[in-house]
Amino acid sequence: MDLILKAALGAGVVLILAALSKTRNYYIAGLVPLFPTFALIAHYIVGKGRSLDDLKTTILFGMWSIIPYFVYLAALYLLVDRMRLELSLAMAAMAWLVAASLLVFCWVRLH
């Protein structure tokens, strides 16, 4: 049942994105994925199953995780004029992967 609820949430987000992309305020579709749906789930699970310090560490790491998302957006912004959309998205996703990997590497080393 838990898995069905998560799938339904994901499908709902996709429907909202599709609907918003057709409005005159299409750019709001860029805000919807930032609703902390999965963060709420993750924080609840960590908060219920681990210590308060572990939850706070998870929250702090989440704050730093904004950096890879910014790298993704910056790369996509720069690439979308130069390449096909699909390739731009793939390259931006790779930039996110590199930035996220560096974040995890640094976090493990320094924390």
Features:
single chain; 111 residues; mainly alpha; flat
So what's the oligomer here?
Answer: single chain
Average pLDDT score: 93
Distance between the termini: 36 Å
Shape: flat
* H and E order: HHHHH
Number of helices: 5
Report the helical percentage: over 70%
Unreliable runs: none
Largest sheet: none
Number of strands: 0
* Rg computed from alpha carbons, rounded to a whole number of angstroms: 17 Å
**Percent strand:** under 5%
Question: What structural category characterises the helix and strand content?
Answer: mainly alpha
Q: Could you characterize what this model shows?
A:
The protein is mostly helical. Helix content is 77%, strand content 0%. It has helices spanning 2-21, 37-49, 52-64, 66-79, 85-110. It is flat, with a radius of gyration of 17 Å. The mean pLDDT is 93.
Q: What's this model, at a glance?
A:
This protein is mainly alpha-helical. The chain is 77% helix and 0% strand. Helix 4 (66-79) packs antiparallel against helix 5.
List the helices and strands and how they pair.
Blueprint: H1 2-21, H2 37-49, H3 52-64, H4 66-79, H5 85-110
Helix pairs in contact: 2-3, 4-5
